[in-house]
Amino acid sequence: MMAEPIAEPKNDVKCFVCDLGFSSAKWISGGKKGRVLSVYQNRGGGEDPLIGEDALDNPGGVAYLRTPQHLVKHYRFFLEKCLDEAGVKGAVKVGVGLPVQFYEEQSKIKGGAVDALKTSLISERVKDVTVLPQGIGGIRSYMITDGKEKTGLVLGIDLGFNTLIYTLFDPKRSKVVFTDTLYKRGISQLASNYLMPKIADFTTGLSMTPVELSRLMEQGYITNGTDKIDLLPEIKSAAGEYMEAILAEIMEDVRANISITRPLETIIFFGGGSNHLRGKIGSDKIEVKILPEPEYANARGFRSFLEG
Questions:
Q1: Domain positions in the chain
Q2: What digits encode the pLDDT tens for the residues 175-210?
Q3: CATH 3.30.420.40 fits 135-292, yes or no
Q4: Burial grade of 301 (CB within 10 A; 0-12, 13-18, 19 or more)
């Protein structure tokens, strides 16, 4: 995918952020940003895979990232692809992300997945690696901008492709109250369980991969021969139903951690899946908002960490 402009960082630090998820890798470098689809095609014994659009455009099947272990195993290939797309020259320090619960578990283990990831990414192009927790990056992105004056609790919901990460953050103490990662949630669940039944008449006989489902939701239509069928009403309806379901599930945990003296003040949504919730969220009691360019929220937070 083509690089897009992004606000220039405050400091001229030669750092590169690559936030690899189950749908795409989001990268930020200086004044540019971009995405690489999280698909690959093995070749060269698995040491020279085709990545992203290159894999989709090449004849033969493609593989998908499905677990945190897959992220760790294939991160170096996606990082190289992102560095190439960004046109990075010379060695840089790199910030990468892993789902927060997996990150917390593995960072306590010497030689675990976090250490293994750091080691695998060091190369002539990468002089230093910092592994950061996905889900927390988005909250940091919010707190350094709109959240500076917040005193009540902030609930961050990172709606990804195959994960849903929710984090309760206490701005007064600059501390995470609790966080959890739900797998087999996010856009894949929204599309499979909520959208597909609504568009069954248009998809009879079609077999759609996870990435194709994600693309269908992004473009908002499906083609049938020469006909272009608008699916936005069905997508919006499915997103609204899904939002109600996930909030009901999440709030069971949240209620146990809020009180009169420590109220929930704000709910923020980020992650690529949040784009589908626009116009479907709101509350008369607390502030509910979707962060700008939500798919890049974690990456923006990671860049802030790297720059200090």
A1: 4-133, 135-292
A2: 999 899 988 888 888 888 898 888 888 777 666 766
A3: yes
A4: buried
